[in-house]
Design a protein that fits this description.
Layout: H1 3-6, E1 7-14, E2 19-26, H2 29-37, H3 43-50, E3 57-63, E4 68-74
Antiparallel strand pairs: 1-2, 2-4, 3-4
Amino acid sequence: MKLQDIARTVRSKNAGSFMITVEIIFNDPQKYYYIKDNAYISQEAIAKAYDLPIELVTDFCFYDPGLGIKANFRRLIPSGGPNESDVYGCQQYAPLLNIEFPDLKE
């Protein structure tokens, strides 16, 4: 099962000119806590999804009341800089969609 199959919302946005925020929100508390308790989504998992050094993934946190996960990562090219293709950062969530949870069932 992939993240795109179980998350209600997976989104990204600017966190200033030099950072991107990613947010993952779940409807199902059991799936959220299963992923959290087994560390399936972590700073390491996000760094791997974006092929970044882990040091560039910051402010990683779980938000239990909202069944959410949030992290920031440093942009390799500043927002609006030369050769930058997503000024608002809203198309940067796609690499998260394919994170797999092989032992998680519907």
